[in-house]
Structure formats: C-alpha cells, structure tokens
Amino acid sequence: FEAVDKDHTISATFEKIKYTITATAGENGTISPSGEIVVEYGDSQTFEFAPDLGYAVKHVLVNDEPVDTIESYTIYNISEHTTIHVEFEQRTYIITASAGKNGSISPSGQISAIHGESKTFVITSDYGYQVCDIIIDGEVVEDAESYTFDSITDNHTIEVTFEIQTFTIVATAGEGGTITPSGEITLEFGATQTFEITPNDGYVIKKLVSNGQEMGAPASYSIINIQENYIVTVEFERISYTIT
C-alpha cells in the first residue's frame, strides 16, 4: 500500500497442492481406478487389480520401481505426481508326479502347466509287475496305463505304486483220482508250482492237459517260471485186464 491514509484489509485463501496419479494396466487384466486420478497433498489412494480368467498379477511398478503386491496397492501420503502400472501373466500350476519301486511315470517331478492346459502322464510297469494304485490328489482312481489332467485350474499330485503280477492256476481231476493241490491256486510272477497226480485203486492216469496241450500221463507235473494263467486237468481210466 502506498501513501497509506486510511485503513485497509487484506485476506488470502489457500488450497492443497494437487497431484496426478496415472494408473495403467497391461493386457489380460484391469486396474481400478484407471487413467489420471487427481489427489491432494497427503492423501492416500488404493488401486485394485483384476486379472482376466486364467491370469495373475505379474508385477506392479510405482514410479517405474517394482513393489510387492498381489490384489491391490495403496499409495500413502502422496506428495508428488505418481505413476502406477500393472502387468499380468498367464497363471501357472504345478503337477507333482512320482512313482514307487518297480515302475515309472513320465514325465516325472514337478511339471508346470498353464491355466486350462491338459497334461498326460504315461505309466510303465517293470517286467513282471503291474499298477497297484494311481493316487490323484490323495484319492485312488481306476488303474490305467496313463492319466490325463484336463483343463487344469489348480495344483495337483499324481502318485503311482506297483505290485508284482499274480496268476491263477485252476487244477481239476476227473473221476478215478486226485490232483494235489487242486482248485484255484494264486501264484506270483516267476513262481513254480508242482502237482502230484494220484489214481485211485483200480485206476491209472489217462492224460494230463495243461492250457490245451497234452502232457502225457505223469505222476508229477511242474509249471516253472509262471507268467500266465493256467488250466490243468487230469483224466483217469480203469485198469483193464484180458482173460484168455
């Protein structure tokens, strides 16, 4: 005021400094709010991230610096213009595949799969062995030579166990004698089983047939290194005499 010769009043008004937060998102997801958001000095602003189905947050950059976050991020006590950018990536899962002794599963170990993908595992038993159990996520499923996870949306485990193969021998005898042992005999792969054939008084062994093949008329018969099922039958006949 120059040449002050009377009273004067002066007043001033103030407002908070405003800053702009520029929020952007890459493909396969969104950030909310997005675009240019105006905030006042000292404010806080929270941003929510929403990946598309089958995608997850890959990384978040605040002023080009990476920050730790998953579903949201809050900028506190804002005192400058700020940028926030979020990138997304296809969601991945792990299938842990393992096999017990006497067989294998392929692939094995920790196998990565992207969202919605399918993965097939091939199961191979060692010679003389067979699949005992296939265990998927702790639950036993039907035995097979392979298993496929379709449209994967979670982590999984697959475990396979094996057991030695078993075979059945069905042994029967006709009238006039016995075969020992008789009935259904269960044996493991590679085992040996001997049968004793005994005719009753007045009878002789006529023939022994093993899986359709005549084996003569032995008093004892052995199946060695069993690798299949067998049907063993023995027939007897009365002793006949000639009176001249």
What does this structure look like?
With 244 residues, the chain is mainly beta. It is 0% helix and 60% strand. It has no helices and 24 strands. It has strands spanning 18-25, 29-32, 35-40, 45-51, 55-62, 65-67, 72-75, 82-90, 92-99, 103-106, 109-114, 119-125, 129-136, 139-141, 146-149, 156-164, 166-173, 177-180, 183-188, 193-199, 203-210, 213-214, 220-223, 230-238. The strands form six sheets. A five-stranded mixed β-sheet has the order 3-1-8-5-6, with no helix packed on it. A five-stranded mixed β-sheet has the order 11-9-16-13-14, with no helix packed on it. The N and C termini lie far apart (167 Å). The model has no long low-confidence stretch (mean pLDDT 94).
List the keywords:
single chain; 244 residues; mainly beta; five-stranded mixed β-sheet
Give the averaged pLDDT, no decimals. 94
In one word, what is the shape?
A: rod-shaped
DSSP strand (E) fraction? over 45%
Number of helices: 0
- Overall SS class: mainly beta
Low-confidence stretches: none
**Percent range for helical residues?**
under 10%
User: Main β-sheet, in a few words?
Assistant: 5 strands, mixed
CA-based gyration radius: 41 Å
Number of strands: 24
The SSE string, one letter per element, is EEEEEEEEEEEEEEEEEEEEEEEE
